[in-house]
Amino acid sequence: MTPNEDIISKVRRFGLCNKPTLYSTDELCRQMAGRGVRGAFVECGVYAGAQLGIMAYNAMLENERGGMSRRVIGFDSFAGIPRATEEDDETITGLIGPTLATPGDTPVSTGVSAQTERQVRNNLRNWGVLDSRTRLIKGWFEEIMPQTTMLDAMLGEDGIAVLRLDGDLYQATKHCLEALYPRLNAGGAIIIDDYALTGCRRAVDEYFGGEPLVTTDTPGMHKTYPNGITLVKTDPNNPADGVHHGYKPL
């Protein structure tokens, strides 16, 4: 598949990411369209909207070509990364500061990586990818993700085809996995952008049973992501898959 260089070149300077991560998101979205995997493209932790812009571009392109009409949803506090908790360590506190959150309290922003909802919306508009299928949802993950009625209404019966998690922290990753991974359709892909960070990796490993899992043999679908990983959700009811929720560690 040929990468969508047009949108990648537009968004590249706006993201806290390197070019391979943009290509990886683009590739996974194109593969979902090619394989007919239904569901929305979802990102948790959008920063300036670069990765979400690639998702929205692919959704628009697919719709124009007569394919599925996908929703594109970006969740973010639009206030920056909150304070870490005791499950995190210096792999993130070196960036956001050592002050830890008080358990049970409302998250407090460190101000790091803060972009307003208006800034992100303007970026998407300037890139030509903001339409009625794209939504931005504001709030802390700890407060948004337990709202199952809201998530059900937003995602409908279609579920999720690509889920991108970029929440940096243990708590953020944990809440997003618990709320959204069950909504990821079989054959869908999840990107864990921050798997190299201790807290994020701990949340992922705990969620998937605490032990390394086997990877799928689907070509191109589970490449090791720069600083993170991608996973393909296989069908637990289909013995032919031979594997379940696989990931490929760094």
Short description:
The protein has 250 residues and is α/β, with parallel strands linked by helices. The protein is built from nine helices and seven strands, in the order ααβαβααβααβαβαββ.
Output the keywords.
seven-stranded mixed β-sheet, 9 helices, alpha/beta, 250 residues, 7 strands, globular, Rossmann fold, disordered C terminus
What are the SSEs and their pairings?
Blueprint: H1 5-11, H2 19-35, E1 40-44, H3 50-64, E2 72-76, H4 90-96, H5 117-126, E3 134-138, H6 141-144, H7 148-155, E4 160-165, H8 170-180, E5 184-192, H9 198-207, E6 229-232, E7 246-247
Parallel strand pairs: 1-2, 1-4, 2-3, 4-5
Antiparallel strand pairs: 5-6, 6-7
Helix pairs in contact: 2-3, 8-9
What does this structure look like?
This protein is α/β, with parallel strands linked by helices and 250 residues long. It has one domain: Rossmann fold, CATH 3.40.50. Helix content is 36%, strand content 14%. The chain has 9 helices and 7 strands; from the N terminus they run ααβαβααβααβαβαββ. It has a 7-stranded mixed beta sheet, with helices on both faces. Helix 2 runs parallel beside helix 3 and helix 8 runs parallel beside helix 9. The C terminus is likely disordered.
